[in-house]
Amino acid sequence: MMTIQGCLGAFDTIYHHEFSEHLPWKASASKELGIHGVRNFFYGLIFASLGWVAWGGWLAWLFAAMLVGEVLLTLWDFVIEDQSRKLPASERITHTILAINYGVILCLLTPVLLGWAAMPTGFHLQSHGLWSWVMTLFAAGVSAWAVFDYLRSRRFRAPAKVPPLLLAHPNQRVLVTGGTGLIGSRLVQGLIDDGHEVSVLTRDKSKVAKFHGRLTAIDDLTQLRAVDVIINLAGESLSNGLWTKAKKRKLYSSRLDLTRDLVAWIAAAPEKPCHLINASAIGAYGHSDTLEFREDSPPGEPDLALDLCRQWEAVAQQATQHGVKVAVLRLGIVLSLEGGALAQMLFPFEFGGGGPMGSGRQWMSWIHIDDVVGLVGHLIDQGLEGPVNAVAPHPRQNRDFTRALGRAMHRPAIMPLPGFALKLLLGEMAETILLNGQKVLPARALATGYAFRHPDLDGALGDLLAGKM
């Protein structure tokens, strides 16, 4: 049963905490990581003791108190998790199985502890053959992670700063869809801090509890009053999961259906908004290893991303028929520790397993999340219409990007990830998102006077990772 507990715990730590949720890189998870560090320290002691040591006499009750302490730490962890993040279904199921299995372990250990209590007081060496070495393996692993988690919980001692938008026109009424996502969260908090009247359209109103300040949460457009600006960021993530037929349908429907609803609301509204800023992506250009794309460039090689982006943009443009300015924000690879492509890369790089993907020649047109927020403010202030590339001025090829990330993390970046392996694991998504790229330049942003906060990659990565390695 302890072996089952160890295997489940390792899966929960590696898959959920490190790979899926990226907890070591989220400021909001600092307290949770600290609890994990303390709990894992005691788990390591429990594994090692059950493998090799009997706690005799009154020490048996000290060991029992440590077992009960694990329960209390776990309950505290549950409370902190619910306050800081929404757990995926697989993590909740894993936690439930771990709790049940731990209860079985406590029952099975009761007679063992009574036997220890009858022994002379002291630590008595014992061996269970192969099982002792299995417990040693788990003790070493969980103890190492106790140190990792405790040290990484101290990365974020100050709350992450949200850059101000400083819009030229104060007191704007703004609706944000997708306002609890990666970009939306940073943008909504910035708008609130600037004093604007912010509404967030969300299916789960509990998610807005993380924002500091006054805003209105709605789950249906019929609840929306007049607004000046609509910022439409909602859409199913392209990089989350295999592109099955059901996933592809959701990629389209999550974008097109909501955008149609927004256009219909605009058509019926007695007071029209001035501006609709609709998200898109540089996937609208297709892919190419040789072409350079600006906003007026013809597309390269077509793929699903190109078709999806072009359809989404076409639906948004229908709002112009009702006198609304429509700007399309073609997003590149957004650099943030809270999610997105960079967060996916941090785990292998932190442990020295990072390197180029496929040939490494594919272009990565990136942008710091602070500049995404800044560009949204720029679009509103300038009243821009049409496509605007949300990318930094200096795109990099994948091999150069990974070297820069390795430098920023003080880790080697020499472990290549073959393209065929990515295709085998992730299918069409790997081909479209990871192995194909495009060199995109922010021509309109620069021409209209936007000053990038983080124009070069080394500076952007340094800003995000400073003091965290």
Measured between the Cα atoms of the first and last residue, the distance is: 36 Å
Q: Just give the CATH class of the largest domain.
A: Alpha Beta
Main β sheet profile: 7 strands, parallel
- Using the alpha-carbon principal axes, give the shape: elongated
How are the strands of the biggest sheet laid out side by side? 5-4-3-6-7-9-13
CATH superfamily of the largest domain: NAD(P)-binding Rossmann-like Domain
Domain NAD-dependent epimerase/dehydratase: 174-383
Keywords: Membrane, Transmembrane, Transmembrane helix
Organism: Asticcacaulis biprosthecium C19
InterPro entries: DUF1731, Epimerase_deHydtase, NAD(P)-bd_dom_sf, SDR39U1
Report on this model:
By secondary structure, the protein is α/β, with parallel strands linked by helices. It folds into 2 domains: 2-153, no CATH class; 173-196 and 223-465, NAD(P)-binding Rossmann-like Domain (Rossmann fold). Helix content is 51%, strand content 12%. It is built from 15 helices and 15 strands. It has helices spanning 2-20, 30-52, 59-84, 89-117, 130-153, 182-193, 245-268, 304-317, 340-350, 369-382, 398-409, 419-426, 428-435, 443-447, 457-465, and strands spanning 53-56, 122-125, 173-177, 197-201, 216-218, 229-232, 275-281, 292-293, 325-331, 333-335, 363-364, 366-368, 386-390, 396-397, 439-440. The strands form 5 sheets. The protein has a 7-stranded parallel β-sheet, sandwiched between helices. The chain has a two-stranded antiparallel sheet with strand order 1-2. Strand 6, helix 7 (245-268) and strand 7 (275-281) form a beta-alpha-beta unit. The protein is elongated. It starts with a helix and ends with a helix. InterPro entries: DUF1731, Epimerase_deHydtase, NAD(P)-bd_dom_sf, SDR39U1. The chain crosses the membrane at residues 58-76, 97-118, 130-151. Keywords: Membrane, Transmembrane, Transmembrane helix. Residues 417-464 form the DUF1731 domain. Pfam families: DUF1731, Epimerase.
